[in-house]
Amino acid sequence: MAQYRTKVLIIGSGPAGLTAAIYAARANFNPLVIAGMQAGGQLITTPDIENFPGFEEKIGGAVLMERIQKQAERTGATVIYDTIVKADLSKRPFVCTGDSGDVYVSDAVIVATGASPRWLDIDGEFKYRGFGVSACATCDGFFFRKKPVCVIGGGNVAAEEALYLANIASKVTLIHRRDELRAEKVLQDALFANPNITTVFDAVPVEFVGTDMPLALTGVKVKNQKTGEISVIPCEGAFVAIGYRPNTEIFAGQLEMYESKFLKTKPDSAATNIPGVFCAGDVKSPLYQQAIIAAGSGCIAALEAEAFINEEKA
After folding, report:
1. Which of 5, 93, 102, 140 is deepest in the core (most CB within 10 A)?
2. What is the reported pLDDT for 47?
3. DSSP 222
4. Which residues are catalytic?
5. DSSP letter (8 states) at residue 174
């Protein structure tokens, strides 16, 4: 078991964490980045990215994250492939423990652990993820221009995804397991008024179906809650929109959270309720699941961490 000492410990290696690392390194803090369970974050599961500034041609999510990591390391950050399983934020310096047993001691912590999409865990979901099955319409909707798609869910996220896709896809079918939506009334009104959106109620997805050569989604198999009838709704893209789960379990009882378990921060800031602890990226807000926004929030967190450490020294 080893012990590491750093001024800034960054937990998470997605766009938020690695951008924070770049800025913390530029401040000569030589930050440590703990990569987590999925080095590179959610973005590495996205085959093609066309909306990240600076890339004229599309770029794979894994390639983009590799480049950002190399930039962070070249600037002075160190990426460690470990997962934080325990965090003691009760006093400074903060002490975090990795799954490896290694201990990380720091003057400031930036939490960039992200949020994970809630999945259905049905047959075919993992198989066609990235090949028709997605959890982000704003990320992947572009690839289904003039093609039929399905959106699965009944809350605000599902309604917003359906309305967004209605301007792109040839047809949008919203699949919901109950007989009425949970989305806000204004969203429902817009949804039902859109001629390009069809809603299928009382339908529970039981399988994603498609082809093997090439690997491509062709439909969603659903079961009617009332009749038990099984049918397949044809589509080339299916968007699971049943919400996101923030990766904040290890901070429970220490960092203030909303009921949804996303972290609370001070207004217009990355600062949490504990001085010296900051957060960035999807762990802070589920509103916009975009890499560029996560990267920007990582910059803010690092700049605030720098100001905090410098004030402590003064």
Report:
1. 140
2. 65
3. E
4. 136, 139-140
5. E
